[in-house]
Amino acid sequence: MNLESLKGTLCISHLENVLDDEDARRANLLGKKNVHVLVMKWESELDQRASLDILDMLQPLTMVKEISIDGYVGAKFPTWFGHPSFSNMVLLRIERCRKCTSLPAIGKLPWLRDLVLIGLSAVQTVGLEFYGKDCPKPFPSLESLCFKDMQEWKDWIPCKVEYQEFPRLRELSISQCPKLQGKLPHHVPLLEKISINGCEQLDISIPNFPKLHALEIKGCKEVVSRSTDELCCPKSTILSIPYMKSLTEEFMHGLAKVENLTIDNCKELTSLWQDEFISLITLNIIDCSSLVNISLTSTLRTLNINGCSGLKSLSISNCTCLEKASIRRCNSLTLISRGQLPQNLKMLNIRDCENLQFLADEGEASSNSSSLLEYLVIWGCPSLKCLSSSGDLPTTLKRLEIWSCIELTSLSSKNELPTALKYLSVRDCPKMESIANNLPNIVSLEYLRIESCAELKSLPMGRHKLGHLNKIDILGCPSFVSFPDGGLFPTSLRELSIHGCGKLEAWPNCMPNLNSFHIAYCPSVIYFPEEGYLPV
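== R13L1/DRL21-like LRR repeat region domain-containing protein ==
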């Protein structure tokens, strides 16, 4: 078989079985002119004295475009590695070379675009040997640089001031480098995205990158800014900063242009300032247990707050652009808004807020404005007694889900439901006696589900006039006795399930178009529909 004609990708695995450099020389990689992607793998990390010589003999043609080295057990790399004659190389990946004490000199590769360095556990310093000796413009074409799982890496020594490192770098990622204490490169004019994760000893000083639009910092010691305008980047849009003790006012001032902000696991953060976020569109705050005060900007469109156990109140009434809000696991929160809900708010999702008593305190709100809320979900709020201080639901509401609100007795003070409602689900509300008095005006209702409401005795009047209602589930309501209106249902009804209604005495009547009918655990039923009232 003529292996000289190999084309495309060549993967050589189990190189630990190669005995010496003569075996490697016979592979004759220099003779394989059409191999553009070369992958070399060692599966064992046993010490091999000949490993450097073996890799030296596995030198490919300089026409190769991509090289991946995985599991190499030598302490250093051969001289051909990173030589500028590899003028076609665009991707280099070095992984699990755990005995290498220094990085190869690869800064002179003229067209290298992507560089990935993973699991080089013995490397302690990244410096001149990485850039290449006497290289005034190292990594001239590099666009993406990734360091990962370098457990002993302590220092990143930048180039000399007169050198221009990484002139085209756009993405920089550093993760699981727990001992790193050095500084990030400062002269990277095209950098767009920085991601730093799991560098517990790193005090991050963020330089002013004019093209930066995505900044993600996780699990680092501290973030430092040298001046108030250091982060004023026109496209800075994402910021994730867990484990920080504080966000200084100077640092926040540098986020004036940020549009999407995520703050995660800042256990000692107590407040955020509205005035610093003049462009903010999306705000995510997660597991900030000491956060007490949040002042929100009017530009905000999406708000997500999760696991902020110290947050006692939240005012979103001034967020005139807010469209979506999700509040979860905020156990000290008693209300969502002082004043009416924002007029443009369409979706509101509230879950597991133990002390939430009502959504909005509308006592001082103007009656000239009204919420356009369409989607409302409230789960696991055992202290909730009413949905708003006025007791009314927005007339625009299309979907309403209320689960596990054990103190809630009704959905509105007037015992009326919104006329636009299409989907209604009430579950685990043991004090709920009625969902409404009448239903005839809710012409859009399509689905009704009532489950585990121990005090519910009956459905509202007028349901037989609901021309779009096609599914009803009544489950685990032991006090449910009867269906009003003579047990009539609309002809549009296709599915009906009644389970665990121990006091129900009669089935509903007139369901000629029913496709699915499930009845179980209703032992008191003594009346069944007459002939012709069920489909044949």
